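Narrative summary of target 7.
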Amino acid sequence: MPEHNVSRRGLIGGTVGVAGVAAGFAGGAWYGDDRAESDATTATGSAATYPFRGEHQAGIVTPAQDRLHFAAFDVTTRSRAQLVSLLEAWTTAAARMTQGLPAGPVGPTEGAPLVPPDDTGEAIGLPPGGLTLTFGFGPGIFRDEHGRDRFGLADRQPEALRDLPHFPGDQLDPAKSRGDLCVQACSEDPQVAVHAIRNLARIGFGTVAVRWSQLGFGRTSTTSTSQSTPRNLFGFKDGTLNVKAEQTADLSTYVWVGPDDDQAWLTGGSYLVARRINMHIETWDRQGLQPQEEVVGRTKGTGAPLSGGSEFTPLDLAMKGSNGPLIPLDSHVSVVSPERNEGVRMLRRGYNFVDGSNPLGGLDAGLFFIAYVRDPRTHFIPLQTRMASHDAMMEYLRFTSSAVFAVPAGTQPGEYVGQALFA
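Modeled conformation, tokenized:
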């Protein structure tokens, strides 16, 4: 059966030999085949699909989906050729899975009985769920911990791609920070997102290993004007002033790397900053409504600023009340507002998480913060430094994971993810 007729929405058929498929993946023979994408049907709701290829990678300005599986990988091979082959294979698999197809052309049920299937099968019968897969490169892909060139790429490392500094309030777990590669899988269906990461990890066996991963639910930002503002686990609307997909001028200013910024291979890409933020849920829940609103700087009900109006009314940071500014100077919205940070904005794409309980019996819960910025040195680090030093919300937060990745531009037919870096 031709590749483009194979769908995970029916039990998969196929006659391609497994040995041939393996050779094709290893040699990159499949990565230029876009028939899977061109023949997919775009629909609405859980059957929605987003093109994998384009000017920018999907999963950045794409309307934020409800579920996340984020994974950071360590590269275990010393071979540049093996690393490139992996990126070719990942590109092929990602182009297929985002369109509702199995990760490999044979599928989970039709291969040779004594050979592992080229798809793990837990997404059989599920629609695409608006799956997007976004890939990034960490500092470690360029130099090892001793500063040695790993894959002949050291001279192509952007100056902005450095490990984030240690901020006040950081209690980072080294095992859940950093990474050589990252994959962000977003979908309306958690099983679709998990299936995608699982299969990419399977394909990468022997070349990469999962360093850490994070599941997320309930998006905590809106990336399109068509979406309503969601709420975080403190119960407040989150991401009201986020950069939106429709604000193309702001995207060019604050999100997309320009041709003169640094390394030419990253033009049209962005930087992904990931921070796992544990919230002290139980402490927060014992605070009164007014103190909560003063910490945030907005009303809990409508999300309007404490200076008045509705959710999208501009902040009036100078408006006085009987005890000082109506929006306290140390409130979260005041500290991180563009007015207090030289106009800098970012595109946030975070998610809530609840990972069971901690040893003290409290919820291991919070916000997995993801932001896309044009340059972390100017668009993230100063703001995080200011927040760590002046934000009243810091009393209720603990940062436990941190990473930064360079996210290349999108791929065109015949290209693999990150090809410009290795050219």
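The chain has a mean pLDDT of 90.
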